[in-house]
Amino acid sequence: MTVLMKPRMSTRHRRSIPASLIAGAVIVGLVIIAALVSFIWTPFDPTITTTDRLLSPSGEHFLGTDALGRDVFSQLLVGARTTLYVGIISVGFAAIIGVPLGILSAAGPRWLGELIMRFIDLLLAFPALLLAIIFGAAFGTSTFSAMMAIGIATAPAFARLARSGALQVLSTEYVLAARIARRGELDIAVRHVLPNILGMLIVQASVCYGVAVLAESGLSFLGFGTPPPTPTWGRMLQEAQAIMFTNPMLVVWPAVCIVVAVLGFNLLGDGLRDRFDPKMEDNR
Amino acid sequence: MLMRFARRTGILIATLIVGSMAVFLLLRVLPGDPAQVALGVNATPEALAQLRHEFGVDRPLPVQYLEWIGGIFRGDFGTSYVTGRVVAAEISKRVSVSVWLVVLGQLAAIVIAIPLGVLAALRQRKASGTVFAGISQIGVAVPSFITGLLLINIFAVRLGLVPSGGWTAPTEDFGLFVEQAILPVLTIGLVQGALLSRYVRSAALDVLREDYIRTARSKGLMPLRAFLRHGSRNAAVPVITVIGLQVATLIVDTIVVERVFVIPGLGSLLFDGVANRDLLLVQGIVLLIVATILVMNYIIDLLYLAIDPRMRRSA
What is the pLDDT of residue B32? Predict the structure, then answer.
C-alpha cells in the first residue's frame, strides 16, 4: 500500500496501531452490528404507529416511544441500516465516477488529462446540498437520488486523489518496465496503478462516508432525504424537533447516534491514514 | 507569471461558459412545464400553448439559452413564471442576507479554528493537544442543525438572552441585527471552525517539521514564537485554499442554518423556488452559486501565485 511513496527515512520499530483506528473500528463495528441485528430482530415494528404516544423508557420500550407511538429503540436499530446504505451508495458512486476519471487523466494524453481536470473543477462548483436539492426536485425525494447527488459532488475528491497517486505510480521504473514489455495502458492501469493507490482511496472513502451520513441527516432535516416510513436518524430528529422542549430525549437519541457514527467513520479514516500513509509518519 | 495569469483567466471564462450551459441543461430535466405550473391542471391545451409561446419555452434550447445568458449580462435574470416577480430583484434581496451570514460565519470559523488548530499542532504529543484535536474531531461530527438547535435551546429558550430566530438588516436596526445574528453566526462558526481547525492543525504540523523551524528553535525561540515568526505564513497557504472552498460551499450549506433560525437568505429562496417549480428563479440562483464558486477558486489560484513565489516559476 505504501509502495508509491519514498522509502522511510529511518528503520523504526514496527508502527503500533493508532488509538483512533481502534476506536473508529469499534464504533463502525457497532453500527454494522446494529444494522444486522435489525434484520432479524427489533423489539417492535418501527414503522407502525400506535396510540402509546410519548411513553417514557420502560422494560418494554427501552427508550420510550415517539409522538406517533413508534418504538424509539427499534427505529434507531433500523436507522443504522439507512446510515450504512447511505454511505455505501454515495461513496460507491463517488469512487466509480472519480477513480477512473482520475487515472485516465493521469495516464491518457495530455490534452485529455487537462480536459478531465477542468471538468472536475467544474463539478467542484456544484456543492452536494445544491445537487441534492435539484435531484430531489427532478427525480423525487428518495434516499437514492439524494445519495447520487452527494456521490457526484464527492467524486472530484476521488478523482484528484486518484490522479495524483496515478501520476506517481506512472513515473516508477516498474511501469516503465511494463511499458517496454508492451503492456497496454489499460493493463498497466488495472495491474499497477489501481492496486497501488487502493490504500489512499480506502482512507478517502472512510472520510467521505462520514460526510455522506452528515449530508443525509441535513437533507432529512430539510425534508429532502429518505421519505417516510423508512426510519432514519436524520428524520427522527426532524420529527422530534417540534416537541424538543417537552421531550428532549427524542432529539438526544438520534443526535447522539449521528454524532457517534460520523465520529466513528472519521476516526477510522484518520486511523487508517496514520497507519498506512507514510507521509503522516510524524504526525502522530 | 503573466502567461499563467492569462491562461488561468482563459480557463475561468471557458469554465464559466460550460458551467452556465450545464446549469441550464440540468434544470431542463426538472419535471413540470412552466405553463402548466402557472395555469394549473385544468388549463386548456390552447391556453397552455399560448402561454408557452409567451414564456418562450417552445423555442429550441440553444435559442432559450442564449436569450437567458444574454439577459444576465444586462443584469436581467428574467421574470418568474410562477410569481411574476423580477428574479434579479428577488435574488439580490436575499444575497444581502446571505453575504452577512457567510462572511460573519466564516470569520467566526477562522477565529475559532486558528488558535485551536495551532495549539493542537504545537502540543501534539501532549494531553492538551489531544484534547484540542478531540474537540475538533467531535465538532466535525455534529450536524449544523443540531448545533443550531442546541444553541437555541441554551441561549434563547433557557437563558432568554437572544431571540431564537428571525432576521433584521443592520441598516434597519443594528442592535436587533446583532441579537438575531449572533446565534446563527456562532453556529456556522462552530461547524465550519471545527472542520477548518483540522486543516490548520495538519498545515501547522507540516510546517513545524521543516528545518527552518528547527533552526529557529535552536536559536532559542519558544515553539509558539518560532511558529508565528517563521512558520505561520507557510502554513497559511493550504489553509487559505480551504477557507476559499468553505466560503464557496457555505452559500449553500447555510440553507440548513437559515431553516433553523428562520432567516430569509438565498438558500431558503432556492428551497422555495424548487418547491414551487420556479424554473427561472432556481436557474438564476444555481448559476449565481456556481459562478461564485468558480470565481472563488480563480481568486485562490491567483492568491497562490502571489503568496508562493515557487508557483510562479513552475509552468
Answer: 60
| A227-255: average pLDDT | 78
C-alpha cell at B209: 517539521
Residue A208 has pLDDT above 90, yes or no: no
Listing DSSP states for A143-199 in one string gives HHHHHHHHHHHHHHHHHHHHHHHHHHHHTSHHHHHHHHTT--HHHHIIIIIHHHHHH
Length of chain B: 315
Residues in chain A within 8 Å Cβ distance of B205? 282-283
SS3 label, residue B31: coil
Check: CB of residue A151 under 8 Å from CB of residue A128: no
Claim to verify: residue B68 and residue B116 sit in the same structural domain: no
Q: What letter would DSSP give residue B154?
A: I
| ipTM associated with this complex | 0.78
Whether chain A has a CB inside 8 Å of the CB on B12: the answer is no
Contact B255 A222 (CB under 8 A): yes
Residues with Cβ < 8 Å from A232, sequence gap 6 or more?
A79, A82, A83, A86, A143, A216, A217, A220, A225, A226
What confidence tens digit (pLDDT) does each residue in A96-149 have? Answer: 999 999 988 888 888 888 889 888 888 888 888 888 888 877 777 777 888 888
- Chain A residues touching residue B255 (CB < 8 angstroms): 129, 133, 222
Tell me which residue in A122, A124, A127 faces B22 most closely, judged by beta carbons.
A122
Q: Which residue has the cell 441535513?
A: A218
CATH superfamily of the domain spanning A33-283: MetI-like (1.10.3720.10)
Q: Is B277 on the interface with A (CB under 8 A)?
A: yes
B79 domain residue, yes or no: no
B188 and B259 inside one domain: yes
Contacts of A153 (CB under 8 A, 6+ apart): A94, A123, A126, A127, A128, A131, A132
B231 and B309 share one domain = yes
> Does B106 lie in the same domain as B68?
no
